[in-house]
Amino acid sequence: MSSKTRVRLTPRERLGRGLKYSTMGPVDVTRGTLGLGVDSVRSSASWVSDRYRRSKVAGELRAEVAAAQEIVAGLPEAIAKARKPRRRRRPLLLAGLGVALVAGGAVTFSILRRSAQPDPSPLPPSVEVNPRP
């Protein structure tokens, strides 16, 4: 049993075969020419779509680079704004809080010290409280 495989010809091979043989010549020449035309149209369409895709990507890249350049251009100004001396409100506020904290600590210390001392006796120091019989 023999298997018969049919070999498909490319348009170029078909055109060459059509020009070579006279019997199938006109048919092969026509099919080869049409095939070459279709292949070239397909190739051109692929090339155009690749170019379009690349130009679109390039345009997006240009837009992102421009945005990054704007950010970098504004960076010195932002740094200068951040380094400007602020008003002296905050140091005055901190100094006020410090004074209040020290005063509160002094008051607390004096209250605790007084509560730790015993109450003074109304009796004179030479009199004993409990005489022994």
UniProtKB/TrEMBL annotation:
Q: What does this protein do?
A: Required for regulated cell division, cell wall synthesis and the maintenance of cell shape.
Q: Which GO terms describe its biological process?
A: cell division; cell wall biogenesis; regulation of cell shape
Keyword Mitochondrion listed? no
Recorded topology in the membrane:
Single-pass membrane protein
Q: Transmembrane region positions?
A: 92-112
GO cellular component term of the entry, any: plasma membrane
Task: Just give the chief location class.
Answer: membrane
Subcellular location, record wording: Cell membrane
Carries keyword Transferase?
no
Q: Which InterPro entries match?
A: CwsA
Q: Which UniProt keywords apply?
A: Cell cycle, Cell division, Cell membrane, Cell shape, Membrane, Transmembrane, Transmembrane helix
One Pfam family, short name please? CwsA
Family designation: Belongs to the CwsA family.
What's the protein name? Cell wall synthesis protein CwsA
Which ranges of the sequence are coiled-coil?
Answer: none
